[in-house]
Amino acid sequence: MTKLTIQDMQLASQRVLIRVDFNVPMDAQGNITDDTRIRSTLPTLNHILSNNGKVVLMTHLGRPKGWDEKLKLDKVGAKLTELLKRPVKKMDDSIGSLVEKTVTGLKDGEVMLLENLRFYPEEEANNDKFSKKLAFLGDLYIDDAFACSHRAHASIVGVTKYLKSGAGLLLAKEIEYLNKLTESPVAPYVAILGGAKVSDKITVVENLLNKVNTILIGGGMAYTFLKAQGKSIGSSKLDKDHIDTASKILTHAKKKNVEIVLPVDHLTTDNIQGKGRMKIEKNEISDGFSGVDIGPATIKLFTSKLQPAQTIIWNGPLGIFENDKFSEGTRSIATTLAGLKSIRVIGGGETVAAAEKFNVADKMSHISTGGGAFLEFMEGKELPGIAALTNK
After folding, report:
1. Which residue among the candidates 75, 164, 197, 248 is catalytic per the annotation?
2. CATH code of the domain occupying 177-378
3. Do residues 181 and 378 touch, judged by C-beta distance below 8 A?
4. CATH 3.30.830.10 assigned to 6-168
């Protein structure tokens, strides 16, 4: 790490202003349905509290158009109180005289949660005056929101102009593992790419071609590559505008001596809701049928390519895994990864959801908390939130 981390800082009696990502999913009644994002920050929060620091938390929730009662952070504050086993002072604003008065009265070991930052348009605009008002609330700034670190917002970039800044434990772990994938990967290095569209992964693939030995491609994007090879894909998902792109990637990979492995058989159906006929088809797919998962021969092929790997990255499911009828390919690869000793990093919301569904998330080397941020990091882009932190 070339950036300061929370472990480089003296925290006792300091107000630590922390950007977290508590953008948690909620049901129609406003109840939190998954508190993973809150729980993932607990190591950082407990580190500050055990060192007698004072915690001032900043986050956004949803995409409000101004103030929105449904997107207030009261339920988030209550959940955090439960998880931390100590009271959290939930504020009704994120700046202003009452917030400033409360923060100056914080005692060591106390926790304060600001209201939803995105109630202010100045947050996403990275407004300097807004940044300065936020920075006034802390003596130090910690970024522990990797999922937001590709955004140049006031609470992520703007505040770093005014405070000594470092990475929290969650962000530092993200940087450590993603650097292993991009800067010094141990060969053989295998990437597993799935998901629906080639267009979402073009830059990622181009960057990976300079680093990996093998790319396994499944999911909806595989059919665009197969179409580029002139194969029949029936009614399977097709990124029509990027057939030529897929063809160029295949050519470029050959020049780079990178092996791209595509499915050799498919689970297909004439009804993707799972109510129709299903069959395994080799190589090409019949008219009226859609590929919904990789087939058994492809599972065996992909597994054989993963066995010798020392570094593995996985982004994108290999079929419509949410439907149990179409989940075997994703489940098999997830289970295979769980049993390997290599560095195995998973990123992307659907991929993480798959790992959790098949109970293997805790067996991976690292699960990235970022969706867009993860992809941009893998594209080789410098993330504004990380670039803004203080250098060691």
Report:
1. 197
2. 3.40.50.1260
3. yes
4. no
